[in-house]
Amino acid sequence: MNIKRNKCILIIICIFFSLDLFGCKYDFNKSIYIKNKPNDFYYTNLLMKDLSQEKPVELYTLYMNFYKKKDFSKDNLSTFIQFFNSLNNNSFISKPANLPNKPLYKIFVTFSVNKYVINIYNDKYISIYPWDGNYSMDYIDTSKMYKAYNLFGLCKYLIPK
Questions:
Q1: Is 74 left (phi over 0), alpha (psi -120 to 50) or beta?
Q2: How far is Cα 68 from Cα 82, in angstroms, rounded to an integer?
Q3: What pLDDT was estimated at residue 20?
Q4: How far apart are CA 64 and CA 159, in angstroms?
Q5: Which stretch of DSSP H or E encloses residue 6?
Q6: What is the mean pLDDT of residues 59-75?
């Protein structure tokens, strides 16, 4: 009698387990599997849109060799904004082959909702991405840009070696 009862319990558990597996219907978000960015300046556009709507809550640069941190002043913020205003479509490139492994400086820009990181590799290359982005970084060639708006020079000015 006890064996029949154990068999019935085992059969009921197996039935519930199999029904549970078949009854699972989860609608996955398919947008996370898209690997191609809409354009080469996707994250830069998002950053510029946030800059036009509000002032950053936090804006600072970090020197990666000694992890020195320096906040931006109001004058530095205007240079930062001028950098983005001076960009054109030719500034955006695919990932360069000779890009250093580690950036020399990082700039962190925090808004009320979004947070962005700007990697500054040298006076020629930078990359931009949000804190939690799905696509690859935006790469920018700054070699043809006006030197006063170059973020590498601004970071060197803020944190001298």
A1: alpha
A2: 24
A3: 66
A4: 11
A5: helix 2-22
A6: 87
79 token code pair: 């240079």
Quote the Cα angle for 93-98-104, to 5°.
90
Q: What is the pLDDT of residue 125?
A: 93
Whether this prediction's pTM lies above 0.85 is answered by: no
Contact (CB, 8 A) for 118 and 107: yes
Those residues with Cβ within 8 angstroms of residue 43's Cβ, 6 or more apart along the chain or in another chain: 116, 128, 129, 130, 133, 135, 137, 138
CA distance 18 to 23: 8
β strands within 58-111, DSSP E: 58-63, 68-71, 92-93, 105-110
C-alpha dihedral sign at 154, 98, 67, 106 = positive
The CA distance from 14 to 33, in Å, is: 34
pLDDT in tens, 75-104: 888 888 888 888 888 888 888 888 888 999
- H-only helix segments in 26-120: 42-53, 74-85
Helix H or strand E encompassing 120: strand 115-120
